């Protein structure tokens, strides 16, 4: 049996816009009210996904969510026709309308936490959608995320789908953005690293003072229980609150791992030495590469601006590893120099490939935010909805679909236009047919 890691990228939705919704996410705040280009955003994402498929990687796509979210607007008391609701919300509660229009489900690293079957007691691949309670616009994602995951991984013999955690800040959960798995080979039991920003039930524990910590220890522990992970195969690590206060709102902005490589900034964690020792102990005897980037080479500010750590580290079919980086890393002198150096360090990382995902980057989402990693085997892959898997035909079809339905300019003021809603629903209805998802959206029920 073959084992590998698949990446499921979020297809950027038709309402991709810059609304400044994410306090603590520097790019989101800096680009608030800028005009977006949803068509370019979707195509940039598709291009990256196709390039990985062309490198021999298993690559899937996850459908976007229905936005504007009329269901939520009705739930909070707006009534009338769809057009009346949009009109009233724009006048009476513009901030709430903006929260109901974000295409933020594109960052599928926040869709769920995933534990491969090699790690779980029942031998199934486990998914728990993230509740994303810290941000209003993201807290309305988990139910549909669960529907989309169930429609994509739709086989109960292989896949276990859990409900998202209780919707309370004690269980703040941002999914795979704060989760990394190290392993010798994808088919071996790995060590799952859960990184959190605060402890809900221990107010004396370190936490940031300026920006929110979106992930709690309690949420991470709940996921480990749900996924039937062994204590011997899990490590819980506190993020350094000082870096959260400098814009590191998820751990995947400061660290990334793959197989036997952990690539992280020296300021990423608390108690770094102790935690690395625990990882080493749980990982066992074989070779493990800790690539620690010192502040003297890359300042936190440069890491946050360039998204050096929001890169994907992938294992190519040759066994060598490649870094998939945003072009923003080439544009930052210190970071570019570091990436030129990293391939010479004698670790498995041998190449760096750059992709322009600037439309997403302007909202604080790099290459790694755009993908959900699912380590799996070929039997499990055969049980996946095959219409979600990237290949020449799907790439051509999705590009044509984007050309047909997406605008090339969208401002926050356009979000109240009922025409945007009609365009978005028409596009998504067609998409569910292309990807054979069934009726995953509220407007289809
Ligand atoms: N690091 C990972 N894995 N994901 C990045 C998520 C970016 C997203 N940005 C936004 O939601 C901005 C939306 C706006 O402002 O319009 C967020 O902050 O949750």
From TrEMBL:
Its EC number is 3.5.3.23. Substrate binds at residues 19-28, 110, 137-138, 214, 252, 363. One of its GO terms (biological process) is L-arginine catabolic process to succinate. The keyword Cell inner membrane does not apply. The active site is at residues 174, 250, 369. One of its GO terms (molecular function) is N-succinylarginine dihydrolase activity. It holds the Pfam family AstB. Keywords: Arginine metabolism, Hydrolase. It catalyses: N(2)-succinyl-L-arginine + 2 H2O + 2 H(+) = N(2)-succinyl-L-ornithine + 2 NH4(+) + CO2. SUPFAM superfamilies: Pentein. The keyword GTP-binding does not apply. InterPro entries: AstB_sf, SuccinylArg_d-Hdrlase_AstB. NCBIfam families: arg_catab_astB, PRK13281.1. PANTHER family: N-SUCCINYLARGININE DIHYDROLASE. Homodimer. This is N-succinylarginine dihydrolase. It comes from Shewanella canadensis.
């Amino acid at each position: 049996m073959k084992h590998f890691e698949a990446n499921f990228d979020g297809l950027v939705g038709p309402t991709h816009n810059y609304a400044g919704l994410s306090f603590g996410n520097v790019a989101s705040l800096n680009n608030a009210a800028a005009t977006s280009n949803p068509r370019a955003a979707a195509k940039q994402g598709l291009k990256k996904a196709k390039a990985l498929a062309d490198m021999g990687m298993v690559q899937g796509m996850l459908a976007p969510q229905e936005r504007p979210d009329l269901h939520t607007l009705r739930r909070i008391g707006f009534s009338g026709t769809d057009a009346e609701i949009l009109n009233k919300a724009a006048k009476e509660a513009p901030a709430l309308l903006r929260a109901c229009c974000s295409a933020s489900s594109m960052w599928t690293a926040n869709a769920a936490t995933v534990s491969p079957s090699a790690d779980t007691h029942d031998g199934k691949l486990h998914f728990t959608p993230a509740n994303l309670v810290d941000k209003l616009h993201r807290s309305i994602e988990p139910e549909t995320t669960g529907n989309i995951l169930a429609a994509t991984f739709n086989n109960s013999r292989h896949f276990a789908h859990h409900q998202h955690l209780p919707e309370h800040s004690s269980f703040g959960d941002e999914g795979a953005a704060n989760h990394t798995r190290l392993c010798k080979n994808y088919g071996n039991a790995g060590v799952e690293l859960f990184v959190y920003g605060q402890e809900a039930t221990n107010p004396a524990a370190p936490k940031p003072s300026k920006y929110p910590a979106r992930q709690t220890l309690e949420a991470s522990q709940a996921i480990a229980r749900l996924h039937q992970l062994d204590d011997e195969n899990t490590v819980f690590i506190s993020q350094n609150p000082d870096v959260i206060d400098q814009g590191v709102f998820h751990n995947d902005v400061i660290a990334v791992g793959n197989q036997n490589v952990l690539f992280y900034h020296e300021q990423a964690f608390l108690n770094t030495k102790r935690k690395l020792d625990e990882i080493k102990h749980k990982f066992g005897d074989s070779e493990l590469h800790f690539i620690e980037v010192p502040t003297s080479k890359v300042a936190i500010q440069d890491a946050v601006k360039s998204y050096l750590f929001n890169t994907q580290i992938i294992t190519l079919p040759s066994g060598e590893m490649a870094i998939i980086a945003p072009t923003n890393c080439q544009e930052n002198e210190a970071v570019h120099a570091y990436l030129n150096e990293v391939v010479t360090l004698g670790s498995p990382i041998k190449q760096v490939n750059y992709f322009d995902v600037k439309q997403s980057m302007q909202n604080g989402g790099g290459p790694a935010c755009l993908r959900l990693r699912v380590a799996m085997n070929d039997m499990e892959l055969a049980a996946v909805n095959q219409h979600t898997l990237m290949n020449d035909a799907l790439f051509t079809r999705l590009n044509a679909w984007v050309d047909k339905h997406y605008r090339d300019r969208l401002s926050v003021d356009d979000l109240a236009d009922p025409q945007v809603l009609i365009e978005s629903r028409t596009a998504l209805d067609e998409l569910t047919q292309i990807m054979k998802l069934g009726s995953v959206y509220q407007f289809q029920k």
